[in-house]
Amino acid sequence: MGKVRHVLGISGGKDSAALAIYMKSNYPDLDIEYYTSDTGRELDETYQLIDNLEVFLGKKILRLAAAENSPELPFDHFLKMYGGYLPSSNARWCTKKLKLDPFEKFVGNDPVISYVGIRGDEDREGYISKKSNIQSIFPFRKNIWSEDVAMKILSNDNIKNLSVLFDSILPVNSKTDRIKEILLTPISSSYSQPHKLNQLLDLGIKEFNQLVFAFLKSTNYPLATEELFPLVDNEDVLVRNDIFKILEDSGVGVPEYYKQIEFEVNGKKSSYARSRSGCFFCFYQQKIEWVWLYEQHPELYLKAMEYEKDGYTWAQDESLEELIKPERILRIKEEYIKRTERKKSSSPYLLDILSEAEGEGCASCFI
């Protein structure tokens, strides 16, 4: 392997932006390459965030673009190639062509550590590259390691090797005795791997990280060649509130599309915003977010409408033309108010009442 590269993808959303700030502030000695994949169909606020980040980081964020030699914008180029077939949750060709392929071309065959901004209060893994030269690290989580690494180190077949490794790197005390006891307990139908992992992390994040880092020396993961890795000592767990604080305190600021805008329907007040970054016509948007786009950026909504033809629509159950009929907008807002009221009633401390499952659109594409 050659020299290990450290990379961090900026999706244009809050979490990846906060991670870039966090890594610069806490690990300034890491030579991180920052990049973003430009589809040509992002909101202006996304480009403003990237500009603000460059000022804070003191270095350029590399713009990756698919179909570089095409006279058309990247999304439009591939849409034509797919015969006008719009992407959807079942056919995410936009993810592969506009995000993943440019990223894998960017890193080539170099050993790469890729930092991913999945928060400590999110229950998802995100995209993990199948290329053996790319290793994902999650600094905001209690478990910074990817699922494939956790599975390998906690495999029942690895218990004997792990025991020897444990004795060679960790001191003997009551805490490590308990850690070793858990390590030696095989996974079974009544004792799952996630349960075992959580027990180990609850007992000692640093100790578990030291063990994983030592284990990686015997693998072909990029970190196998590194003598030191500062995130081994990282015990931070950052959640949604922390992300907004990082953005505000740094001066980079929160992207405008996250800021709630009030509206009133039949005497009831509520507010809406966008819950994700990504293309302005992202098919993962909820109906209320499409309404937000229509009312806040009508010119972009009309552009999104232009893509709908030959039976292809962004939402599977209705066209954008149907969605903005006055009676339909009214009904969407009414349903949204009811849903948010139910959420407030069932969980008064719930911070994110906009979406059932908050996401950053294509943020998961940043490996």
Low-confidence regions = 348-361, 363-367
Number of structural units classed as domains: 3
Shape: globular
Overall number of strands = 7
Largest sheet composition: 5 strands, parallel
Number of helices: 14
Outline of the structure:
This protein is of the alpha/beta class and 367 residues long.
Give a verbal description of the structure:
With 367 residues, this protein is of the alpha/beta class. It has three domains: 5-145 and 232-250, HUPs (Rossmann fold); 146-231, no CATH class; 256-361, no CATH class. It is built from 14 helices and seven strands. The strands form two sheets. The protein has a five-stranded parallel sheet. The longest helix is centred in the C-terminal third of the chain and has 21 residues, at 326-346. Mean pLDDT is 90; it is low at 348-361 and 363-367.
Layout of secondary structure:
Elements: E1 5-9, H1 14-26, E2 32-37, H2 44-57, E3 62-64, H3 74-81, H4 93-107, E4 112-115, E5 134-137, H5 147-153, H6 159-169, H7 174-183, H8 193-203, H9 205-216, H10 240-250, E6 261-265, E7 268-272, H11 287-296, H12 298-306, H13 320-323, H14 326-346
Helix pairs in contact: 1-2, 1-10, 6-9, 7-8, 8-9, 11-12
List its salient traits.
about 375 residues; 3 domains; five-stranded parallel beta sheet; 14 helices; about 10% strand; disordered C terminus
